[in-house]
Amino acid sequence: MTATRPDPAIGHNRSPRPQTPAIRSSSGDPQRVSNSTSTSPQGEARDDSAPRPATATERTAAPAPPARRNRLVGVDVARGLAVLGMFVVHVGLGWSLGNGTNPLTDLVSGRSAALFALLAGVSIALLSGGSAPAPGRAMGVALWRVVIRGLIMLPVGVGLTMLDTPVSVILAYYAAFFVLAVPFIDERWKVVAGTAAALAAAGPVASFWLRGMIDDGALTRPVALINAYDPLVALSGSGLVDLLLTGSYPAATWLPFVLAGLAIGRLDLTSMRVRAWLTAAGAALAALGYGLSWIAMNLMGGRQRLEATYSAEAMADHGGYSSTAQALEHGFSGTVPVNDWVWLLTALPHSGTPLEIAGAGGVAITVLGLCLLAERALRWIGYPLAAVGALALTVYVGHVLLIWVAENDLWQGTVLQWATDYLALTLLIGCLAGASAWRLTVGRGPLEWPLHIVSSWAAKRIP
Question: Quick check: 99 pLDDT over 90?
């Protein structure tokens, strides 16, 4: 799940131009694009610079802040799609086919969370200057803002996890992602992209090996000792080891999504060529990941080997499945079993394998690219989705709380009972209409606002 990616309000040029609804990011900050150009409401690039001779005072004064720029509505729309996709996974759609399945649920499972994580990286990049990274002291402030936001996300995520809903809450993992991404914020995009690719290949293998050592006893005692003194384990049952290695969104296999987003956020996302390149590259990456997995599992005997080797009892211990075939149909909850390396050739949702990271990551990049390409049309017709994306933290927390209310029948027998009786419909209409109304009338979200204020205030006061 769910899964969270800039400060002054958007300004206006001196010349009149049509007003557009202002959408802020899930962090509550306006997203920024390159320093040299901005985009009109119609999406055309224009030069905001006004060349003229500098006065003596200007030549000796401190550098002026960069010009204010329009935000990337396509990023908000993509984030809104990610949030709604996680809603579908968590509560369904209220309908299914005759065999009890829902094709849309299967389509978004794992991929919506991957998109959410990718956009976290994009948000980190935009927060620190986008394609024109902040220089000097400004970059230091941006680094601390990212760290502080992650530290704020941690107690929020732990608190939601303590509610013990069926949702695998992603926010505590976000805290780990943000902190681990900090060393890469001021690196060149090619370095970050290369690191993401290396981690996508090596992270799942390292996870497989280390989790095997936990299971066979070599690391059992050290992990038990860590968990015994981990306050997060005492509070929510999920601690540092889960956040990094064994949980639903472990950093070992999910950090590549965040770093890929960070690299993408360093590109000129106002360029139609870059947008088209992202779309094509994402589609190719998705085809590569899912295609290689299909070949390995169906043409090279991987599926037959796993189905013939492992019993229902073995699968019951890893995901509660009644058979290996069922596991191969629906995926896992963050990691694959460590009893056979062939599991690393699957691309199942939430399996955390190299091919799943490539496939889901490619889909996420493609969706982002398409949303950016269609940004001109989505500026208006996609406004509800963009509003959900801008208020992603508030909407995500709200949906977990509503699921908790429904699970505990807290509104049973009240006038609000209908909201939990038709939970999927309530979440869909409520978040689209509520987020749109809030953005139009209030602006920054009720959770995004304090996140912005606290992180900005604290970051500027750290030496």
Answer: no
